[in-house]
Amino acid sequence: MISANFDWKHTNTKLSNDATTIGKSLSISPRIVESLIEKGYDSEDKINGFLNPQLSDLRDPFLLHDMEKACKRIFSAIENDEKITVYGDYDADGITSTSVMYETLENLGANVEYFVPNRFTDGYGPNPEVYKRLINDGTKLMVTVDNGVSGKESVDVANEMGCDVIITDHHQMPDELPDAYAIVHARYPGHEYPFGEFSGVGIAFKVATALLGELPEEFLDLAAIGTVADLVSLTDENRVIVKYGLQMIANTERPGLYSLANLAGIKEVVNEQSIGFGLAPRLNALGRMGSASSGVELLTTFDDIKAEELAKDTEDQNKKRRKFVEDISTEAIIQAQTQPESAVLVVYGQNWHEGVVGIVASRLVEQFHKPSIVMNLDTNTRILKGSGRSVEGFNLFDAINGMRDQMVSFGGHEMAVGLSIKEEDVTALTEHLDKYAKEHELSDQVKAPLNIFADLSCSDVNEDLFNQVQLLAPFGTDNEFPVFEFTPQNVTNVQTMGKDNSHLKFQMVDHGSKVNVLAFKNGALADDLLANSDAMKVAGHLEKNTWKGRTTIQIMLDDMYSSGVEIVDKRTQVVAKEMFEPAAAYLFFNEKLYNKLRPFVGSDSTVGLYPDLSSFDKFDNIIIVDCPSDISHLQDALSEISFNSVTFYLFKNHYIFKKGMPNRAQYAKLFKFIKTHNNIQIHDKVDEISRYLGIDRDIFIFMVDVFNELNFVYINDGIMNYNPDLVNSDLSNSHAYQNREKQIEAEKQLLTISKEKFKQAIRICLG
């Protein structure tokens, strides 16, 4: 049984008149127009603006709070040769933010340096001790990027030491703001900018625009990387930044970015996935593994040799990061598997790199669908430090906040937390989380929604549809890939991929059309997919695949589930003891076989002989051991029992359909032989007589049974003679004759057909 990970939500399938009219006017699919109307783009001008964003759509940067004040102070610092330090952050957004601000100030002739905190020694965000050190080193103006609004203590330190602080940030505003010289923020209370969803680099880009007095298109590549990496809304100005930034990346003149893109395998096509899966993870790896300062140098240097060296180092750091993630994930999964009853997984180990435990926590959530906390144990202090990730609808921050007084440190939000705790308090944490999960009914939490754009058949998937969908790109937060639902007739060519077989590839087949599907991190479902191959619902988005000059459109899986009873086809002509080891309800149709194999069935299972089905409702998994002599018996059993999965052995060592029914000539030959011979020793000379008549032994015995039942002969003590008083009767009136016909039909319908047709036949039996 394959269950859906999401709650599939179908958007309005009815097309409005506006969608049809606008679609015709713009020469695009009305369905795409309708999806935009549902998002609030309710006129042709708005829809055209969304589909064709322009650089001129970027608003005046001086609409941002304190922008003019910030620019005046920066220009003053430049004129007076005051040392300016750009204080950044160690993730991809922070690195690109730092690069944009540093390069802008350097181009203006400023005496400028940058500082990127080390997550292990400096922590996240403004650090008062670091501020002191930088100011003592001559800094007169601190300009933060991608951080700062929560740095009240650090700003107070700077003010006391005579250093002004300009904050440029996008994070949530605290109740008490720092007493900074200027705060450039799109959501400043009472002075909100028309668009409030910028990333850190988005704000830095607006500051650069204001300082330079013109749109700095040369920074669009960096702005696009940070915007996509930080998962902010890809609408409005962010959509403009990313669309044109992707074009800049494809034609970048930054040698560091060019080298990094090559190492990431980014070739001809550059899109938001190139950033999300290629560039951003590599830049993020720097901050996870150590210092991210080299990331700023990589993006801002114009020395080709230096750029290549830095790119290679970044790639090496990413490889190390991936190795840490794989190794720790393996250990964490083993621990998690020992906690089947835990509502929230809490795992930890020694020498687990703290920079990647958040990624490992996300892996556990994906595999076990439970909130997960992953921590490293410092063997000297006996303090555990790590990260937690949650599932939709479960507030992990609130859950842990209930025992904040036992935490060494703690922070975060509903879906992600960072924490430190003494080893001796881990048991209390685990018990507290389980209690909280029960009180808040974690097991009953609603699944996250998956919006279905439209239902498609395999024949609908083509390059024209792909090109229509691409009109909505770039995709990301608030503008996700359109997800389509498929109900294929069958799923074939199921195979696992990857060095650890963790990925899955299969083919949907629908009325002669075929479409390939890639399902990353779903390799473990291969067997279940085969068992449900004729009853699958598949949801995914379109992707273009070019291989050896041939381009096809494939589906990237977003979710799938089996829509009916799981049917496992294990038809066999051989039985073995281990076939009866699984806990299940074993159903037999043949009494002799039932008596022979019953001892092999374990005590945690049940066994029954048709038509007695009284004990079978206790099991979700039913195993049909042998082939029934009448297919109606199977239909009756399947309709009477409630189950989620049914496995078919349908054991039968001799198939009678291969010999079929005797023909009229054979009946005539046997009848003539009986009529012309007396006292035939039928029991002792079966082989001799069947050879003499040229009739198969089993067929011969069957024919004798039919004649005996219809009183064409009489048999006493193994001696057979012709019955002179016989009454003519049609052979089909014999029960033996009728039963053999039913057996042949059952074998043909159940044993001779392909796996695909077999499952179709069983679905019919299931009604």
Automatic annotation (TrEMBL):
One of its GO terms (biological process) is DNA recombination. Coiled coil: none annotated. Residues 83-227 form the DDH domain. Residues 455-559 form the RecJ OB domain. Residues 567-760 form the Single-stranded-DNA-specific exonuclease RecJ C-terminal domain. GO terms for molecular function: 5'-3' exonuclease activity; nucleic acid binding. Residues 343-439 form the DHHA1 domain. Pfam families: DHH (PF01368), DHHA1 (PF02272), RecJ_OB (PF17768), ssDNA-exonuc_C (PF10141). The keyword Nuclease applies. Keywords: Exonuclease, Hydrolase, Nuclease. Belongs to the RecJ family. This is Single-stranded-DNA-specific exonuclease RecJ. It comes from Apilactobacillus kunkeei.
